Amino acid sequence: MLIAIRRIVAALIALLVLTSCGPPRANRIVVGSKNFTEQLVLGEIIAQQIENKTHLPVERRFYLAGTYICHQAILGGRIDIYPEYTGTALTAILKAQPSNDPAQVYAQVKTEYAKRFNLLVSQTFGFNDTFAIEIRGEDARRLGLKTISQAAAFTPRWRAGFGYEFMERPDGYKGLAATYGLRFAESPRIMDLGLLARALQDKQVDLAAGNTTDGLIPALDLFVLEDDRHYFPPYEAVPIIRQEMLARHPEVGRALDELAAKISDDDMRRLNYAVDGEHRDVKDVVREILRQKGL
What's the CATH fold of domain 2-128+235-292? Predict the structure, then answer.
């Protein structure tokens, strides 16, 4: 009950912050993001790309809680752009059945976002950040585990840790547990995404749902179990853009098109580790990768 109350209060605070700010000025581009490292990095990539290529002023409105808050913020004109994932858009926002075909998922999301919300789903950054069901590397080696199906035999003795959103999403915990027959020693612990990898390393939990591009996976000797029943859809990262803003500033769309297919899975993993593992400033990390990519 306490966790539920905290989540409600956090969502209300986020909405209050958003509604207390008027719509962005016509000559200012407002970039938003969700509240974890990769989103911060992608938001900063979008912001710097716009600043570098258009010289329009950019306001950063990062850490806007989760998917639903960001979606409402862009629909309400409080932000103009934010990074999203195709599988998340398909299941969490459109409430559609998941598919394992990346091209089909992208096309469906692009079409439906334009039709329903007047939002442009831009070209993909180039990487797929699917959910990663993680255990400690030492446990994987000791028990000879490679897949989620194999791990299901041991989960009744394990404790699980998941993010708030993962517990509620249609492509989250309930479906995963049903698909693989997962049971745990106690109810899953619900915590911020940024705490899950450390909690796993520190043996506070024995299995967690992270992200495949998390830079701490190799650094903390974590092991990603194969989704052998193909439960998760593709989660290609894409900028979501308000069409009203693009009508005023088509140069923003052209600038973001230059980011298409520029960031690989390995690139994203290194960027996340630079911020999480090396504690570098995100602006410096982004400047460096944009230079490396000739942007």
Answer: D-Maltodextrin-Binding Protein; domain 2 (3.40.190)
